[in-house]
Amino acid sequence: MAALRVAALLALVACVGTEGPPPKGSGGTLVISTVGDPDILIPPLTSTVQGTQITDLVFDRLAEIGDSLNIVGDVGFTPRLSNQWTWRRDSLSIAFHIDERARWHDGQPVQAKDVRFTFLSYKDTALGSPFAALITNIDSVTTPDSSTAVFWFRSRTPQQFYDAVYPMPIMPEHIWRDIPRSSWRASERAKAPVGSGRFRFVRWTPRQSVELEADPLNYQGAPKLTRAIWSLAPDFNTAVTRFLSGETDFFEGLRSEHVPEVARVSHLRIAKTRGSDYTFAQFNFRDPSNRTRPHSIFGDRELRRALTMALDRNAIVRNVFDTFALPALGPTVRAYQTTDPNLPQIPFNLERARLILDSLEWRDADGDGVREKNGRPLQFRLAVPGSSRARTGMAVLLQEQWRQAGVKVDVEQMDFPAFVNLTRTRAFDVVIGGWHTHPSPGGVRQTWSSMGSRSPTGSNYGAYENPVFDAYVDSALASHDLPTRRALFTRAYEIIIQDAPAIWLAELIPTMGYHSRLQLAPLRPDAWWAHIPEWWIPEDRRLPRDNAPLSTPSSTPSSADSAGRKAP
Amino acid sequence: MIRYVAERLAQAAVIVAFVAAISFALIHLAPGDPFSAAIDNPSINDAIRDRLRAQYGFDRPLPEQFARYIGQLSRGELGWSFSHDRPVRDVLADALPNTLLLMSVALVGSFTLGILIALVQVARRGSATDHVLGGISLFFLSMPDFWFAILALLAFTYWLPIFPVGGAVDPVMHEYMSIGGRIFDRLRHLLLPALTLTLLASASVARYQRAALLDVLPADYIRTARLKGLTEKAILRRHALRNATLPIITMIGLSFPALLTGAVFIERVFAWPGMGYAVVNAIAARDYPLVVGAVIIGSIMVMVGSLLADILYAWADPRIRDE
Questions:
Q1: Contacts with A238 (C-beta within 8 Å, 6 or more apart), sequence order
Q2: Are the beta carbons of A228 and A32 closer than 8 angstroms?
Q3: Taking CB atoms and an 8 Å limit, are A457 and B84 in contact across chains?
Q4: Are A200 and A554 in contact (CB under 8 A)?
Q5: Which of A63, A370, A445, B150 is in Cβ range 3.0-4.6 Å of A449 for a Cys bridge?
């Protein structure tokens, strides 16, 4: 078998061409081990993390957010496709000047018309971009000349610059203009994207790999890595094993049980960054069988507080995540500049929780360990997606800790689509959910405000509504001054934490494993992959796979696809 | 014979249509739909999901959706895969050859190995070799597919790294290899999953074949062969084995679909981009057209396996051929 291995290595080396040495401090092939396939490779339609990672490297925004995730005004942003911008005096428009050096990967220049085309595409309901909701404050985009795109806003807000640049990586008009937007999803071009980023697309072999390579003529300069490859596996264990065995260089989503193994292998390292995901156990305020009525248990604020008080959240998080998560603070994450890490919480106090439940007349009269009130037991269902080991683990611990307070919980595990269906139809008592946050804390309006509860575009499935909370959030979002903004958000969070519409469980700490040969750049909290163009591998640590040649520039898909294929 | 095959094919068409209808109904009964993904992303809200649902016709009554689907099928279209954003036909055309490659290697390997083990066991029946081989067969027979696959993966890719960790080809270097290098690369990736499937499947073949051989050994014609002075080896190979193959032929027919389901776990663990991998993801994503398309392919494989078994039966047993 050793001979087989040597033969394999020789075969690989013999088959690989070599180029001249790359500049010092650059070069190498990054292989990322990941679980699952991307869905599609164009920014307006991708909704998978793999798709986002790849499109973020292939496509450019007008400006890029900085590592501090400061979204107020433009100070936190650095130029990308736009090398300078001008605010109108009333701040209701911003004129972006397009960098004249910028080229699409097929050699065409990037122009202002591409920016306008991108905006119109995102807004078009025929395309159905999930990001359309993030650009509602933009009224229109005009192009006074070929290198200037002017964004016109409906209202002046602190994050209008962010609204203009963050949700919309710019798409090439000349590639997409002939394809009806309703057919983009079905188009072959959505699987072989042409962008303007520092990496260009090479190939996607479904369920096996996606390959990008350096664009050596990029206007921002070539990336340091020669290639970046996503090695796709359907199974988590397989993906981890690929990383641990050295077949890949990088794996995101390490779990605590992998730490001893990573520590044992001398060439493996662990990197952590601030997270942008939090999980929670959400109470339903409405009766699942009749939504016009309040929920018979969770309509009572004091009872929700008692249920929160009965839980030792620190122990739960430690048990399930070890050091890979922190107790969540509220409907926010610590990465936001507007989040006070010392937000007051409802403390764990089992005795006090029992007393509150007694005072609310939930008492265990028959001695079966479950409290009752008017003959009705304090019992409810806790729904959790079985595909998430962490959420399942938390559900079991919640069940046990609530049992000690005299509360009977039936944990219902279900597959993910069934869980989503239950959540969407509001047919639950309690669900263990999670939100992935964008750099703007404004997402809390959609997930926890009255608007989020009542609007069809809202995602406040538990139907918590408090106009005071809404008002503080609105005021915070309207404030340009960071200390004021932070103070207003803090007040809003304090209100919702004390109202306990959910139990804030864990804020995940993204934990990545990487090979020590990789020279990493800082990992941005919302997108660890943002600085991949600055990663590289020293010459003395390279493997045969690092020396594969660059391909010829990717060409535009054939004209046969120009009309797109129509999805049924 | 041609008429017989034609009749069986006609029956198969009816059964496949029935299976398609049942699977269509069952998958639609499961809660959720293809647009349930990314619930954790507040950008993808219910309004967008509803719009997508309407765009693809999932807001229509189920009978109407079924009628549309049957209409598509009658035109030879399997529909659109939502999880792959490609026609189902293309997804299956990518996946099926990989599964057939894995299955055929495992099928040939498992039956060859199983029959050989059975021959050795019967030739040395009652000896320590017989007991040891029987024990090993029982061990593999008792082993859950996915668990053994994970163990094999860890053992031969991590603890003793002589095989690549899954996939059909090297995701980094394959495209840069010569033709010879690519073939070698593909074989290198095929070996471990095929070996795993072979070991798991050969255990039952060995046990069935051993029992069938032991059944025919007391027969008169075997005694006659012995009296004629033939060696035990020749008796086993020339006389006993052919008469003891009938149960194994039945197994071959059954193994076709069984290997497909077994390959679901193997493909998942070894990241082998075949049917099993595609179908498991499709079920989780409620990709209705792909699930039903895969079930149709699966039922066709059952039919083919059954037909193959009947033809082999006729070849092996002149009495059946005469009938």
A1: B153, B165, B166, B268, B269, B270, B271
A2: yes
A3: no
A4: yes
A5: A445
Summarised one tens digit per residue, pLDDT across range A463-506 is 999 999 999 999 999 999 989 999 999 999 999 999 999 999 99
Cβ(B165)–Cβ(B157) below 8 Å: yes
At B166 the pLDDT is 83
Which residue reads 């938390």 in tokens?
A: A394
> Distances from the Cα of A131 to the Cαs of A125, A336, B174, in angstroms?
11, 21, 36
Q: How far is CA B183 from CA A8, A12, A208, A344, B190, in A?
A: 11, 12, 17, 63, 10
In which band, very low, low, confident or very high, does the pLDDT at A567 lie, cut at 50, 70 and 90?
very low
Distances A135 to A100, A153, A403 between C-alpha atoms, Å: 26, 10, 46
In angstroms, the Cα distances linking A271 to A244, A249, A527 are 15, 13, 14
Amino acid at B162: I
Interchain proximity B45–A446, CB inside 8 Å: yes
End-to-end CA distance of chain B: 11
Listed range (A14-18, A469-473, B103-107, B318-322) with the worst mean pLDDT: A14-18
Locate A100 and state its tokens: 């004249």
Considering only the beta carbons, identify the residue of A36, A233, A457 that sits closest to B47: A457
User: Does residue B18 register a pLDDT over 90?
Assistant: no
Q: How far is B309 from chain A (nearest CA, A)?
A: 33
Angle subtended at Cα B159 by Cα B155 and Cα B161, rounded to the nearest 5 degrees? 85
User: Rg of chain A's alpha carbons, rounded to an integer?
Assistant: 26
Name the minimum distance, in Å, from the CA of B109 to any CA of chain A.
20
Report B:78-107 residues touching A (Cβ under 8 A).
79-80, 83-86, 91, 94-95
The tens digit of pLDDT for each residue in A45-98 reads 888 889 999 999 999 999 999 998 899 999 999 999 999 999 998 889 999 999
CA–CA gap between residue B15 and residue A234 (Å, rounded):
32
B281 CB near a chain A CB, below 8 Å? yes
* pLDDT interval class at B37 (50, 70, 90): low
As a whole number of angstroms, the distance between CA B38 and CA A435 comes to 10
- Please, which residues have CB within 8 angstroms of residue A485's CB and are 6 or more apart in sequence? A72, A158, A338, A476, A477, A479
User: Considering only CB atoms, which chain A residues are within 8 Å of B55?
Assistant: 128, 182
A345-A351-A356 Cα angle (round to 5): 75
Query: How is residue A143 annotated by DSSP?
Result: E
Bridge partners, residue A141, by sequence: A151
Closest chain A residue to the Cα of B280, Cα to Cα: A234
Closest by Cα among A254, A48, A236 to B166: A236
Q: What is the ipTM of this complex?
A: 0.75
Per-state percent for chain B, helix, strand, coil, to nearest 5: 75, 0, 25
With CB atoms and an 8 Å threshold, state whether B44 touches A47.
Answer: yes
Alpha helices in B124-243 (DSSP H): 128-142, 145-154, 179-216, 220-227, 232-234, 241-243
In single-letter form, the type of residue at position A430 comes to V
DSSP for B61-106, please give it.
-HHHHHHHHHHHHHTT---EETTTTEEHHHHHHHHHHHHHHHHHHH
Interface check B172 vs A, CB under 8 A: yes
Hey, what amino acid is at A475?
S
The residue among A103, A175, A168 whose CA lies nearest residue A141 is A168
B70 burial via Cβ count (<10 Å: 0-12, 13-18, 19+): middle
Cβ contact B216:B240 at 8 Å = yes
pTM: 0.82
Using the beta-carbon criterion (under 8 Å), do A231 and B178 form an inter-chain contact? no
